[in-house]
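Limitations
The structure tokens in this dataset are predictions for the assembled complex, not deposited experimental models. Users should treat interface geometry with appropriate caution, especially where small molecules or nucleic acid strands are included. An illustrative entry is reproduced here so readers can see what is and is not provided.
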Amino acid sequence: MSSPFQADERFADGAQYIAGELRRGTSGREHAVVDPATGEAVYTYELAGTADVDAAVEAAARAFPEWSGATPGERSDALHRFAAVLDDRAEEFARAETLQCGKPIKLTTEFDVPGTVDNASFFAGAARHLEGKSAGEYTGDHTSYIRREPIGVVGSIAPWNYPLQMAAWKVLPAVAAGNTIVLKPAELTPFTSLLFAQAADEAGIPTGVINIVSGAGRDAGEHLVGHPGVAMTSFTGSTAVGKRVAEIATSTVKRLHLELGGKAPFVVFDDADLEAAVHGAVAGALINSGQDCTAATRSYVQRPLYDAFVSGVADLMAAVRLGDPADGSTDLGPLISHAQRDRVAGFVDRARSYASVVTGGEAPQGELAKGAYYRPTLVTGAAQDSEIVQSEVFGPVLVVLPFDGDDEGIALANDTPYGLAASAWSRDVYRTGRATRAIKAGCVWINDHIPILSEMPHGGYKASGFGKDMSAYSFDEYTQVKHVMYDNTAVARKDWHRTVFGDR
Ligand code: NAD
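Predicted assembly:
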């Protein structure tokens, strides 16, 4: 990799991007972005205050008439140019994402950035396919048709685990549908959201269509959700914060889209390809250091394969290379922060009293000790109702439990409050067919776990939220449907008037 990302130079004017300009926040509070691989601050900025949110909402509202009035073809052209600029800047995006998150450079280069470019290309195409479903003479005397219209200014809030992809998932469907947007990234990770908005301007998306407020959740976040100038709230984050966001959005009667936490089950039936399941489980559990809402977190393995699965996973986890995220051979980087590492360690340490830690369960020593690293961890022997099985740990930790009958495996998979994603592993199409129908989650993979793509909707069941990111389904969140009805008769005294006055 070439030189590290220089945030001080790139964001010398501040970390708020409002009406096409970088500026300083006005909250009076500073925040340091810390490289989690070293624990060192790499950039300090003033957090957004409520006045910055007001200015961003105003900029988005000013941009709305022109942008929503653009033809689908014009919006599509702008998004195609945006995809090209993102692609040109791929290396800078990868370096910035790796620096602020500690993600291995191979993950940002091969997953986060190309996924984002592809999302922009997808929504460039999709912008031309927005349509109402129906037109016709349903009463006989009228013609009805359906318009799909943008909602207005969208206020979006994103988490720190995939800052660039979350910016793309929030911004692209919203603006493709003709909305304008104010996005609040997590305070830990503002870099790639800012670069994303700058790239949009460079591509010719009009000033004010995309605005970024880098601020704290409690003040800038809540102010954005409750803002009277914001017509819709789109939130991705934890279920706990999602509930608070829902309260504020509901009290101000806003359209709401919630992408919340997950605790994905990974169900291995006894006819599964064991090697595939072991590799799938380790990759699915460790991607992004396990800080992935769809990560494999609970493996249920049918008894005949259980012992071999546990030893296969333990061996593979032990071979994973922790290291400097900027090094192309590093498999696993640090967690997002030391606080997150300590939180994960807390879950594992509490589990020692009721379960076994087969491998991992500690931070590495030596060179890596200053970073927020945690070793890949395998836990067995935990009860289904224990904390480590039920709660979102959000770290490189996999729990494995045995099951006997197929129905038991599926029931255990469904037995948490979450329902974002799941996978089932078997060579038997009838078994996997039953599992896909019975598992309550917004995504079920068969014989794989994690792949995600622009054409497919992403979103949860149960406490994992509602609404869809990506795909044409996301337009259901970011548009509102209007029924238009024309009288075709030109009759002044209509038959139905007699229900209000007069007789037949
Ligand atoms: P978080 O809920 O702590 O924070 C998410 C965002 O909300 C941040 O920008 C934060 O500043 C903001 N926020 C915090 N308090 C707020 C408040 N009171 N009002 C308004 N905004 C507030 O989540 P996190 O720790 O940043 O991210 C991890 C969580 O995100 C996990 O639970 C993970 O499962 C979830 N996640 C879900 C998806 C999905 O697609 N369902 C994707 C990625 C992450």
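Some entries come with short summary sentences. For this one: Residues 306 and 348 are 21 Å apart (CA to CA).
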